[in-house]
Amino acid sequence: MASLSIRQVVKRYGKGPKANAVIHGVSAEIGDGEFIVIVGPSGCGKSTLLRMVAGLEEISEGEIAIGARVVNEVEPAERDIAMVFQNYALYPHMSVYQNMAYGLKIARVAKAEIDARVRKAAAILQLEALLERRPQQLSGGQRQRVAMGRAIVRQPQVFLFDEPLSNLDAKLRAQTRLEISKLHAELGVTSLFVTHDQVEAMTLAQRMIVMNAGRVEQIGTPEAVYARPASAFVAGFIGSPPMNLVEGEAAAGGFAVGGQTLALPAAAPRPGRLLLGARPEHCVVGAGAGWPLRVELVEMLGAERLVHGRLGDAAFTARIDSGLAAPHPGTTVALQVAAQNLHWFDPADGRRVEP
Predict the structure, then answer these.
(1) Which residues contact 157 (CB under 8 A, 6 or more apart)?
(2) pTM for this entry
(3) Are 293 and 244 in contact (CB under 8 A)?
(4) What tens digit of pLDDT does each residue of 50-77 get?
(5) d(CA 318, CA 288)
(6) Hey, what domains does the chain have and what are their CATH numbers?
């Protein structure tokens, strides 16, 4: 096992004034044995960053170190990493055993050692009964476990996962997330996991790196990122449903939105234009005093309901327990949000504004 350092890494395609930069000075320090998830929307550069760590993409600037060794010029096969891909990349003509053993065979590992490693990985992943099958005889979840087993037998310093659950259905994704968590708890290998799914990020990560347009927006534990998003982008990306973000004018204990002024439980951090953020689950819906939400739609989601409406001219969503009476579309209800659950952002650059 080893730590992983990403230091001011830049990636450009092309040269000269027409070069297209897709990664803009990304830095992150990943501890020995830590499980880090890189999360962000499609096209934000997360897979490109992972491929640079793997050596599959060249670095334009900066450096990447695995342990104490800078690996910028080191070939992928010599970086002591193992990668699990989205599409499994299994050899169709080989059995599960042969797929898992192939990399070790090429590395000329002794036959007895190969057998011991493969059978140990198969036991960890509950693949013992499938070792003689071929990939076409397996389900998607079983194929992904074989791909993970092939990585485990390598006994690498770093695991790299490139959206490995994207091809699985929702039930299998949840099950495989649990298996990956158990796997990391047992092996303790430094792991870098890329996903666009914020649920995967929140449930798997010890710390997460939230990326947007080739830049790091925030690095922190899932709890910290959820509770104190560093930017409006993070606030709107992490959380389901996403945080409500309403732009308006703060002054004298109120917040003007679309021709009406909302009373605040605590003064805004500064006067002037601001983005007000509030998570749907932190909104209390009821009668009496509060922000007037004009209800447009109510969604029934089993244990909860989502109440969609408008505050002034701004779209806003509140989440309520399904045991509560649902408001009817066309009516107006009162919203209350505690001061500690309000978030403020600068509308110009999206950065968090502290009280």
Answers:
(1) 1, 2, 66, 67, 80, 81, 189, 190
(2) 0.89
(3) no
(4) 999 999 999 999 999 999 999 999 999 8
(5) 16
(6) 1-80+192-233 (3.40.50.300), 241-345 (2.40.50.140)
